[in-house]
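User: Hello, can you help with two protein structures?

Assistant: Certainly.
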Amino acid sequence: MTNNWTLLTGNNGINISTTESSISSEGTITIEPLNETLNVAGKINSHGGFGNVVINTDAILLNSAILDLQSGSILTINDGATLDNSGTVNIGSGAFFNNLGSSNPAVTFHRDLEGEEGWRYITAPTNTSLSALLAPIWTQGVIDGGNSDFGTPNVYRWGDEEGRNREDWIEVTDLTQNISAGEGFLVFVYADDNFNGSPDPFPKELSVTGQEFPETSVVTNSEDNNGWTLLGNPFGTAIDFANFRAGKAISSSVYVWAPDDTGSTDETEFNSGSWATYNTSGIGDLTNGLIAPFQAFFVENDGSTSVELDFVQTTKSTDITNTRFLFKQSTSNSIRLELTGKGLRNSAWLTFSDDGVADQRSPGDAWQLAPFSAEYALLATEKPGVGLMDIGHFPTESELSIPLATQTTRPGNYRLSVTDMDFNGKPLFLHDMQVGKSVPLSTDMQYEFTISQAAKAPTDPFSMLREDLRMKDAGASRFVITTDQVLETGGPELPLVFNLAQNYPNPFNPSTIISYELPETSDVRLEVFDLTGRQIATLVEGQVQAGSHRVTFDAGNLSSGVYLYRLQAGNQIFTRKLTLIK
């Protein structure tokens, strides 16, 4: 005899077992095998955080009405279970569809785009066209399937070549094409979806209906060592990057662009986007390395051949309730620094082991990628001659000197703080080379300082599609982290005279440190010239406070030879030679 069960709206917490039916307050609807079909003729409305639905092995749920999961809820179909859907299954934004069974019912997936106008990296968890996915938002420069054929196209895919040049962002002008499983896109989301001069409110909801992509494989679109590939999560649940990366010739770090936190113009709230990175050692701001549905992400090739990347059932995460962006986590032998101020925020991680190297790439390093928002803060460690790191892997048993780069688009007061610290090595000290002050790194560190010279915010969002994903330079590193307390805490005595020191090391390849001293706050210009007098680089330009200062000069793009570096501070001018040998 077949029983027809009717679950009415609001009856959350119903547990159906093999022997009895009962109402519970556990907040999970668990459907166990009954040797019969459970027919939902009413509505299951599962609320976020306590409205989970689990269909266990050999159980069958026949949904002929509405199964509605809100943010924070999880619909799990375990291996051997079946969801037969002739009604509606809504997976709300922030809810998850964790299908481990053999049935693949049609589902409607939703994703809210929070924040404000700006770039988003997106994909879809089902076979659908770009025009259907992007229907709620303005698309332009489009021949087919968009709102307008005028204007610069605002939908892009990553190129098929080395993945390093500006032209590798390819304009998508036909939105009627379907999204392939595992394919990611870059979309500029305008505030005005009708272009009638009246901004439309955020969040903006994307929704697609269809069957979730099955297991699939994609190939890295770059055969260049250290080339980039833009991928997309093809599932309705989070994927675990560590599981995805296992055994594949790609870098151990993943890169997810996290848009602004609030979208507010209030400078007491954080509203700048930043890259959330993570490595398979468990370091980074992308919590547990979980990548949410609808999210596209970058990986870096770790060889000279193309690589097949598999999205399979084991790629799916069983820990999907904590899928968040920019969420710090404590990890052994690591330090997380955070830069905040003027409504902007960014972080940098330092991790330490015997495999870490201070002047070369190390396992687990994650590059600092160029920001994709007009207003931003940047905080990164620097490996001289290598580049800026969002996650920097350094040695444990050595004397350390780690430049710390900062850059913001808003001048004003900022704070450097340690938010997480689990480090058993030698004591570390943060030195502000601009004002000549040192403080120990500890969980209590709250260092206040002023940025007077801000980076210029781009006025054209399409100028952010830069020649290289990596952030090549943030200017002179104002801060240095060392194992030696070179400067006394509370401020050293000021230098008595202006001085420009000989660079160290010299000769060098490819980077060196130039030090200078100012007995008083001065207008400073520090430049590098070749022997013909041609200017090569400007390392410092602007007002600098009294004290001792160090600047890293990277000559990686120069030929071997002798060069001059000149310091002009107030009425004083000093010139010295440096030698580059490659």
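That covers the first. Now for the second protein you mentioned:
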Amino acid sequence: MKKLSLLIVFLLGITAVYGQDFLKKSKVSGNFQMDGNYYWADKGIGITEEDINGNEFGAYGFGKIQYQLGDFTAGMRFEAYQVTPMSGFDMRVDGMGIANYFATYDDGTIGVTVGDIYDQFGNGLVFRSYEEWTLGFDNALRGIRAVFRPWNGVTIKGLYGKQRFYWAGYGNDVPASEERGLVRGVDGEWDLNQSISSMNDSKLHATLGASFVSKYEADQSLVVGQDELIMPQNVASYAGRFNLGYGRFALSAEYARKINDPSFFNNFIYRDGQELLASLSYSQKGLGMVLQVKRVDNMSFKSNRLATQNDLDINFIPPLNYTHTHSLPSMFSYATQPLGEMGVQFQVNYTIPKNTALGGKYGTKLAFNYSQVNDIKRDSIMVDGVKMINQPGTKGYNSNFFAIGDRMFYRDLNFEIEKKINAKWHLTLMYINLYYDMETIENHPGAEAVNANFAFGEVIYKINRKNSIRLELQHMWDNVGPNETIDMTHADYYKKRGNWFAFLLEYTIAPKWFISVADKYNYGNPIADNRDHYITGSFGYIKDQTRIAISGGRQSEGLVCVGGVCRTVPASSGISLTITTSF
């Protein structure tokens, strides 16, 4: 509250000096969200009274306000979490207070920010600070950032600070479990078309960039097994990137490297890390194609070497796979593997022209996507005359940059047809073939991989200008069927396995009202007690920038993933209320 009081006093002081002129030039904006959940016992999906006792209610929300006057901007965000084990959030988010505040001055040439900083260098391979409310994730950098734009098309950034770690303090006297290293970085980007007059109107568009980021953690000796390991105090990383465009083609790539960084996450090996991300695309009217490739090798980069989960990531590993939003395939969303993965994605979008035999009056949209992620290939190294892989205190392994590992983590092949039949009817059909290494992605030792097919269909019928009905049907055929013999010691791994059927029926009165009912039925689970209906109902009201939604029913167990970062959501039964607004 002290920080809030100081900001109020500051604003009142400016008001007193500049009076009404200050108020007229000022701009205030913000947004608000509140989520509340009430849970109850549901023995049908394994939730007992003992599970619920003391965990009936969970609530979380935030309010953000931002003030702007000319080149000056300031803002803050208040957060409140009262979570329960049912919510799936890490319990360390529990608490309330002003979690984020900042002040920025930027006149177009020079910009300075103090407080909590969200930023990204290039694709984020060596630095990205961001928050994702749906995951309870926030790694904002509290410190200072300076931006300098000496010429058109040239931007230089420098920053210094310490990452947010739930509600932990930022001083030097925090407990060892809450310590974080200092993060320091500089980034430069040059848009040649803006800087070089002869290229202002060129068909060739070119941008170059480079980044350097390091972390400082106090020297610490750790005993791992029978060995005492000396940890490096400074760990540096660097990256270079380019974006080229000519006519209908575009090519971009970024390569990053990180100096050896032994940590809990990589089993305390002293191997350098590296990553490559590249993309080639082509587009014209009615046709778009993109090919992306990625290689990641030991690129976990955290400001605390003992961090064990998604906490305190300094960098970001972009996913290449298609993001499914439908309820059944989204149960098997891919989580990126920072210790090693090689991925490829190919996407084609094509529109059959209007007024043709296949295009009809409105045209027909076709989309094809293929993505696959494999492990990298690791070769043993000689340690004291013995071949070893990934042993603490060593360089870990050798890995040829272009060698692909035999183990496949994820594969997704999908095809979609979208067709507007007439003014009232709209149809979407989709087929998905999915391979999902549950053992690796969800850390379930011994779990059998998912090799499933999905069919999806959606029909929208516009009754009139305001009223419409949407029907969504889904089916999943799993390689693990109802008659499968399974190892009951791994019974928990099979809760979302087997054949599924799902539907959603939604009625909308635009632009304010909607109501829906949905069900997911795990009718083909190999364990009879897991064959449950997950029925939900939702009701919502929208007015201007405010949305209120109430839903109730069962929630199946699964992963919630955003941008390759995931959290586990347990099965639950109850009612939830969500309110969002902005101004």
